[in-house]
């Protein structure tokens, strides 16, 4: 998707660098407000159903990361320009791939602690050892074997892998 076609870029036009015109919110607001507006408008769109992007191609992840990097650069007015990864880090935002993994890990945590919803909780089981090991204290999950690469996209395979890492 090119920049003008992406719906996120239309929201990012609100949070433009101050030197690019009077439409910039950062001209009229205190220091942290552009960050809050950007997070509310664009990051929420990036987070919406992003767990469905688990194990997606690197090409798709790069597209989404480009949107996040552009958003981070639009918040800061630092000259000379610094790499956008440093902006993302200074805003305490996770990169897109890590955000997706974090969202799945939070879902697994909720499933393990509340067993709700049951149709997902039934897909997970704790790893049991034949004898007492130190690793039993970590509450690791059983990772089912999968014969195909496409099968690795299933929640029952990918969620234990993310949880155990």
Structure description:
By secondary structure, this protein is an all-alpha fold. It has two domains: 7-96, no CATH class; 101-164, no CATH class. Helix content is 48%, strand content 0%. α2 packs antiparallel against α3, α3 (58-75) crosses α4 (84-90) and α5 packs across α7. The longest helix has 19 residues, at 96-114. It is elongated, with a radius of gyration of 20 Å. The model is unreliable at 16-30 (pLDDT under 50).
Task: Determine the N-to-C terminus distance.
Answer: 32 Å
The Rg value, from CA coordinates, equals 20 Å
Task: Give the uncertain stretches in residue-range form.
Answer: 16-30
Helix content: 40-55%
Largest sheet: none
The total count of strands amounts to 0
From the structure provided, what is the oligomeric state, counting identical versus distinct chains? single chain
- Name the beta content range: under 5%
* Domain module count: 2
